[in-house]
Design a protein that fits this description.
By secondary structure, the chain is α+β, with helices and mostly antiparallel strands. It folds into two domains: about 260 residues, D-Maltodextrin-Binding Protein, domain 2, CATH 3.40.190.10; about 220 residues, Roll (Dipeptide-binding Protein, domain 3). It is about 25% helix and about 20% strand. The strands form six sheets. Strands 14, 15, 16, 17, 18, 19 and 20 form a seven-stranded mixed beta sheet that branches. Strands 1-13-12-11 form a four-stranded mixed beta sheet, with helices on one face. Strand 11 and strand 12 form a beta hairpin. Helix 11 packs antiparallel against helix 13 and helix 17 runs antiparallel to helix 18. The longest helix has 16 residues. It is globular and about 80 Å long. The chain starts with a helix and ends in a 5-residue tail after the last strand.
Amino acid sequence: MNKRRRRLLLLIVFATGLAPGASFAQEGEPTTLYDAATTNLTTLDPQRVGDKPTMDAVENLFLGLVDLDPQTGAPRPELAARWEVNPEGTEYYFWLHPDVSWVRWDPVNEQAQVVRSVTAGDVVNAVRRACDPRTGAPYAYLLNGVIAGCGEALSTPAAQLTGGDTSALNAIGAQAIDNTTLVIRLAQPAAHFPVLAALPVMYPAPQEIIDRYDTAWVEPGNIVSSGPYLLDEHIRQVRRVFVRNPHLPAALRGPGNVERWVVNMVEDQATALDLYEMGRLDGVAVPLSAESMFTPVHPEEVHTIPTFGVAYIGFAHDKPPFDSPAVRRAFAAAIDRQKFTAELQPGIPMIHLTPPGVYEALPAGEVGVGYNPDYAREQLALAGYPNCQGLPGPVQLLAAVPVEHVAFLLRAWVDVLGCDPALFVAVTTDLTSLRARVAYGGMDDLRPHLWTGVHWPDYPAVYNWLGDGMHCEARPETRRACSPIDERIALLYRRIDPDARAQLVREIEEGFFGAEGEMPVAPWYAGVALRAFQPWYGAPVDTDGLFGGFHLDWVILAPRIP
């Protein structure tokens, strides 16, 4: 460790009350999770949250109608003790726990005060705030076209609402029948709605507190919250502290034992790694660039965690030779994803689209052809191009990835398919330029035959990948013609029965990426992040918080090792 970093660490240690030679846990302090961050929280207002670090905080400050199970990712009851949906799939009825309270923490006197009960009206208020264009909710678009009236409200001029015409907000399909009963009407059946109801954009909001403090309602001493933790301190650029909510019903509390969560700001991620190695942090993000040095020293502590972003190779279905499914299958089956993720890019090899960790997703590798040189050559011959002879060129590849990744793809198509290297024209660019080049109705004369892409999810349900990502009307840049698979995708959007949904997911993935599949794109790999956790840290870290915030009340800290 260099002298400058050592001096910085000593300043941090002293600032947090830890003498350099002291044990990490101070005698008599509550069970405390120590963390570090390099960026400030954006806001603790649930409707305005849009980034992962802030979602971690908001997840633990507020209860949602629905929660995503820390171990399975499945929607499960939280503020709503249960819910039902009408036979048409257009009305969801929620029955709330009657004993959940809004609680204010006084950081001066260190007292938690119950303000009032959380009601169905607070959920209605949250939905209206989310669909109000004046709120600027980053995830409001997820409710547009799903909750009845939300899209119309979002398109209403803000001046009209401010001027007193709130008819568009009043028409939104959310209604409190009584204090603990709520109905939400959908614009059309949407089987993934319980997943949306688990996101912060729909967390209940206490309007009288918001009216009193405006944007400062989420500051320490003002904020009222309903989750397992309360905000004790939030000093930007310095520290944030959360304490256990003593008024949360026991039935809604996880199995963890953390009473306090302290997040100290640090200069950079390298500083956080150093603090972890000194035993001053319970967990730390490990940059992929540091993996080769860090993991061998902590092999049992580093976890590889999916990020849900799936990289793929896009095909121009309207440009020969990639108008042929057999050619697309050949180019996809020539890619050795296992070798790629082992040698060039940490990740999860993907041969179908929905990544592991997503509720209802198939296990990675269960459906799809994957790397199969014999099959790849067979398909190319079936298309009329044995050993790549006669394949029209030049084949243009546009990539927003490192040149080493481009070289890997080109070698695969040359070595496995027998193509002449001169057949390919590969150009690297930035992601923005790439999107402009491949966009539907964009620069058609410059549009490539192949390109690299990444599908980032908007919400953690299989439909986001298979429907929003692959439906013929949702992925227009490929110019894929609609087919019977799109009818299965439409059913997946509406169908609620779990067994029927599981069968639909399998049929769609097989119809796209199986041996006779359309191969609309070639799935490549799912991104991963690395995190290290001290030996005394226990939690479902491989499954919890993959989308949204993690559950602090599921963390169990054993006695720390000196």
